[in-house]
Structure formats: C-alpha cells, structure tokens
Amino acid sequence: MKKKILILAGGFSREREISLKTAKGVFKQIKKKYNVKICEPNGLLINNLRSFKPDVVFNALHGRYGEDGYIQSILESEKIKYTHSGVLSSSIAIDKEVSKKLFVKNNILTPKYFKFNFNKFTKKTTLIKKIKSKLRFPVIIKPFNEGSSVEVYICSKKNLFKNLKKISPYKEIMIEKYIPGREIQVAIMGKRKLGAIELVPRRKFYDYQAKYDVKSKTKHIIPVNISEKKIKEVLNIALKTHKVIGCKGVTRSDFKFYNNKFYLLEINTQPGMTSLSLVPEIAKFNNISFLNLVEWIIKDASIQR
User: Fold this and answer.
1) Dihedral of the alpha carbons of 189, 192, 195, 196, in degrees to the nearest 10
2) Is 66 a catalytic residue?
3) Residue 104 contacts residue 90 (beta carbons within 8 Å)
4) Calpha distance 14→76 (Å, rounded)
5) Rounded to an integer, what distance in angstroms lies between the CA atom of residue 61 and that of residue 71?
6) What is the rounded CA–CA span in Å between residue 193 and residue 108?
7) C-alpha span between 303 and 305 (Å, rounded)
8) Which of 10, 11, 13, 15 is catalytic?
9) Which end of the chain is more exposed for a tag (fewer CB within 10 A), N or C?
10) In order along the chain (305 residues), what is the average pLDDT of each group of 10 residues?
C-alpha cells in the first residue's frame, strides 16, 4: 500500500497564497508515489486527520498558526509524524525578538533593534531622538511574527511616520538598524550545510514582491561570488543558528553581507517550495532534485520534534 501523506496548506496568515503554491509544488512531485491529500487547517482539521490517518503530515503552512508552533502542538497531541521544526523551535524562530536574543547570547551577529509599542507612543521627536542615538537612520520597521517580508519597510526620517501608520494594527513592532550590503541566504538540511545563494533585487530590498513576483526579476546568483573562506563562515553560522534554535528538517537563514561581516536577519523554519523558492534551487545546484528534497523531508518527519 502507498504511504499516506497529508499536506497542510493555506491557513490564516498573510502568506496563505504562498502556502498553497508550496503545497501544489509538493503534491505534483509526490502524487504518483504516495496517496496524497491537501488539507486546510480549519475547524475540521482533527476530524480530517483522524479519518484520513496519514503516515506523515507535510507541513506546507507559512507564517502565523502554521510556522509558530500552533499547528505543531496539534499534530503532537494527535501523535502524527510531521515535517519541519517542532513546537518550541518554531515558536522561537517566528518571534523576531526572542530569536534575536538567542542570536546575541550565542555570539551570532545580528542588527541592533528596539521594541516599539504604539499604545505607549507619545512624541514624534522622542522617537526620532531614540532612533538617532540607538540605531541611526535608515531603519527597518517590521512586525515581530510575520514571515516572507510581510509589512517590512525601510524608513528614513522623512517617511518613518507614514510607514509606521501602515503597520499600526500590530500594536507592537520592531525597529531595527538597516544593514546595507549583499543579500545572502543559506539552506540547511538536517545536519547538512546545503549551500548559499545571493539575491540581487531590482527593488529596494528583497521584499515580499521581490520574493514571489516573477515580474520583479530578482537575480539569483549561485555559486555566490565570495571567497571559499567566507562561504564556509556563513554556512557555519547558519548551521549554528539551526542548532541554537533547535530546528529540524530544512531551514533557510537570511543574511546581509556588509563590511566583510555577515549579519543574520532571521531563520525560516518552513521555507517555500514554489517555482521561485530558494531551498529547492540551492538543492538542485547540489544535485538534489526537487523530488529527492521533498522525499528527504518526508522521511525526516517524526513525532516530538
């Protein structure tokens, strides 16, 4: 009998569309070999899990409720094998503040930041002074628990308050020092340092549109044109981060390379599997087909991750 694979996709986060694309990409690869079903994580999820009885749940959800430990805790309680990182590591990785504190504690270089609370906001001049003394302009503003560069803005003193208004529904956000330089992303596959890729966006930075819109024409460069020593360095930092957070399966770490230093921006516990996604591209460069990558992720699945 064919193994049963349930792909969890869609969901309620801002990355719903990307999740559905990831699910389609995975489904297409494994439909001949496995008994595969795509399922939404809705109110019928537990009923669907119990009626289909999958051997493995392939977690293709991105963002909140899928990548933050929430869905993982349900799968743990149902004692079903699932892919990617577990409850604790997922919740740490998606929380930009908690993960940053761990980066700092483990001597992993990351841009400086501070927390900004809209409810406690008093004067514009006070905020400007704080940014100038702690970070200096330009800065990045972003929510604490969104992925795929959702609602991320580069701000000068001139456009800061206009951009803050756009993300005010989040109540609390991160204001981070903007690091210029090159965009380097690294894939880890279990304990293996899979490889790195450089992105040259035509837009201001590698934002949501640059990631997922073919028309944005972001240039992908692999192999990365830096010294072998520096490549080893960034691969080692990515693996260290993967271990520090306690990740499992496949992860992708996002770096800025500036003044000969790598600044870790964040680690993604459920990287995309779309036609424009980076982990499959890095895998392909290292002679691992999309199918083999997906099969490895499925075989790596377990309970209590």
Assistant:
1) 70
2) no
3) no
4) 25
5) 9
6) 17
7) 6
8) 15
9) N
10) 93 86 92 94 92 96 89 95 96 92 97 90 87 94 72 90 88 92 96 95 55 65 96 98 97 96 95 86 95 96 92
Burial class of residue 24 (count of CB atoms within 10 Å of its CB; 0-12, 13-18, 19+) = middle
Q: What is the SS3 assignment for 195?
A: strand
Q: Where do the H-state alpha helices sit in 45-181? A: 45-52, 70-77, 87-94, 96-105, 124-134, 160-166
Residue 293: its H or E element: helix 290-300
Q: Which residues is 173 bridged to in the sheet?
A: 116, 143
Which residue in the list 59, 145, 148, 277 is annotated as catalytic? 148
Among all chains, which residue has been given the structure tokens 């990631």? 211
Closest CA to 128 of 166, 168, 175, 180: 175
One-letter amino acid of 240 = K
266 is a catalytic site residue: yes
Give the separation between CA 147 and CA 260, rounded to whole angstroms.
26
Q: Could you report the per-residue pLDDT of 129-183, keeping only the tens digit for each?
A: 999 999 999 999 998 876 546 688 999 999 999 999 888 888 889 999 999 999 9
Compute the half-sphere exposure of residue 234: CA atoms within 13 Å on the CB side of its CA: 32
Of 10, 272, 277, 305, which is the active-site residue?
272
Length of the chain: 305
89 is catalytic: no
Q: Which two tokens stand for residue 53?
A: 């009885």
Q: Which residue has the tokens 């991320």?
A: 152
**Known catalytic residue at 136:** no
Query: How many Å separate Cα 158 from the centre of its chain?
Result: 30
Domains and CATH numbers, the chain: 4-84 (3.40.50.20), 93-108+181-300 (3.30.470.20), 113-177 (3.30.1490.20)
